[in-house]
């Protein structure tokens, strides 16, 4: 197992390098960089993309060859444009910028946001609690509900209970997350019905003045609706995975042998079947958490006015805040690759019979 882990760790480097090269190359061809953003703000356009749609750029008024490179420059002094390029590092060729960026990342220096005057690391740490809250609680609730439900469905396979619960979770899976989130707001957050939960934020304004129990209660009060909205679609996959795993194990010979020996059904199911059936479900916990952590957070955070990593990435992409874009891409890409290795280790810990080295051989 040690050799397998070592090989996987070595593969992290070229994989991460490939991700960064592809994304850095694509960014070079995307219009509306940070220099254009500054020019658009100075010209009162507010949004650089209006210039590309013909809403504010008058190319004929651009006076210099330097400013001609930027839509909307409108004759700004070339010295000013060059100063902006130096400030953002665009006075260097792309290859040199990319190599400098990688060298800084190796030293864990992810730079500073172009527009927020804060380091990328501090910015990520500032937004992390919201995303961790959504990812962690959504994953835990999905497991707590899906595993018992999947086991019950496997035991009562083909019954009326199995049929109507399958219909319910498939309908829940089919409902778009943003639509369900809006429904929760309308029903329980001051829409047309009840004002039970708050509309925005992770905590109340007076959170620091509350007691310990008050802080805990306030936190769960704010996170309840976003967590439910982000969890609803996860029930179907985990429930059906648990059910199918149990059904596969129940049909195996060792289960029939255990029953033939006179063991009770409860002991057969939870003493023998459970451990084997839960291998794929439990070992996949890190990957499921990362999946919930990264996917769907933007919509949920926007609807519930939560300032997390989803909104951070979206706003950085719109503003062309390259240090934030590439810094978060590097950090999250590294996290995903490491979690993939942890998932394999979890499989081995749960079931020592699994040997990835023999499979590779």
Structural class, please?
A: mainly alpha
- Name the CATH superfamily assignment of the largest domain: MetI-like
Give helix % range. Answer: over 70%
Q: Tally of extended strands?
A: 0
End-to-end C-alpha gap: 12 Å
How many domains make up the 3D coordinates?
2
Task: Count the DSSP helices.
Answer: 19
Radius of gyration: 26 Å
Question: What is the chains' assembly state?
Answer: single chain
CATH class of the largest domain: Mainly Alpha
Low-confidence region ranges = 46-67
Shape: globular
Strand content: under 5%
What is the averaged pLDDT score?
78
* Order of helical and strand elements: HHHHHHHHHHHHHHHHHHH
CATH architecture assignment of the largest domain: Orthogonal Bundle
Largest pleated sheet: none
Transmembrane segments: 9-30, 132-151, 163-189, 219-242, 277-304, 324-350
Organism: Sedimentitalea xiamensis
Keywords: Cell membrane, Membrane, Transmembrane, Transmembrane helix, Transport
Membrane topology: Multi-pass membrane protein
What does this structure look like?
Helix content is 71%, strand content 0%. The protein has helices at residues 2-28, 34-42, 49-52, 65-68, 78-88, 94-106, 120-155, 160-174, 177-188, 212-231, 234-250, 253-260, 265-277, 279-283, 285-294, 297-303, 309-319, 322-350, 356-360. With 361 residues, it is mainly alpha-helical. The chain folds into two domains: 35-109, no CATH class; 121-360, Orthogonal Bundle (MetI-like fold). The model is unreliable at 46-67 (pLDDT under 50). It is globular. The protein has 19 helices and no strands. Helix 9 crosses helix 10 (212-231) and helix 11 crosses helix 13 (265-277).
């Amino acid at each position: 197992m040690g050799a397998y882990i070592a090989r996987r760790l070595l593969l992290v480097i070229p994989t991460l390098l490939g991700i960064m090269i592809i994304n850095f190359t694509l960014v070079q061809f995307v219009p509306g960089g940070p220099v254009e953003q500054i020019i658009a703000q100075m010209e009162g356009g507010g949004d650089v993309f209006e210039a590309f749609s013909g809403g504010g750029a008058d190319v004929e008024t651009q006076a210099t060859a330097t400013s001609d490179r930027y839509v909307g420059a409108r004759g700004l002094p070339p010295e000013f444009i060059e100063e902006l390029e130096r400030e953002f590092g665009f006075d260097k060729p792309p290859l040199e910028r990319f190599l400098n960026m990688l060298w800084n990342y190796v030293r864990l220096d992810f730079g500073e946001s172009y527009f927020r005057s804060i380091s990328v690391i501090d910015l990520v740490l500032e937004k992390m609690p919201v995303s961790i809250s959504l990812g962690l609680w959504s994953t835990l609730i999905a497991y707590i509900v899906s595993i018992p439900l999947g086991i019950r469905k496997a035991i009562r396979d083909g019954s009326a209970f199995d049929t109507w619960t399958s219909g319910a979770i498939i309908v829940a899976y089919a409902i778009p997350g943003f639509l369900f989130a809006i429904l929760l707001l309308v029903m329980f957050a001051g829409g047309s019905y009840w004002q039970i939960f708050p509309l925005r934020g992770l905590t109340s304004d007076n959170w620091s003045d509350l007691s310990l129990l008050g802080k805990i209660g306030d936190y769960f009060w704010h996170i309840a609706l976003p967590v439910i909205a982000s969890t609803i679609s996860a029930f179907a996959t985990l429930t059906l995975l648990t059910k199918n795993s149990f059904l596969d194990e129940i049909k195996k010979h060792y289960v029939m042998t255990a029953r033939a020996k006179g063991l009770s059904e409860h002991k057969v199911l939870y003493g023998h079947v459970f451990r084997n059936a839960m291998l794929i479900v439990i070992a996949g916990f890190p990957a499921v958490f990362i999946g919930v952590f990264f996917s769907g957070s933007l919509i949920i955070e926007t609807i519930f006015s939560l300032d997390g990593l989803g909104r951070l990435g979206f706003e950085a992409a719109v503003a062309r805040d390259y240090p934030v874009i590439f810094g978060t891409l590097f950090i999250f890409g590294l996290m995903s690759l490491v979690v993939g290795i942890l998932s394999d280790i979890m499989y081995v810990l749960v079931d020592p019979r699994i040997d990835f080295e023999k499979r590779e051989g």
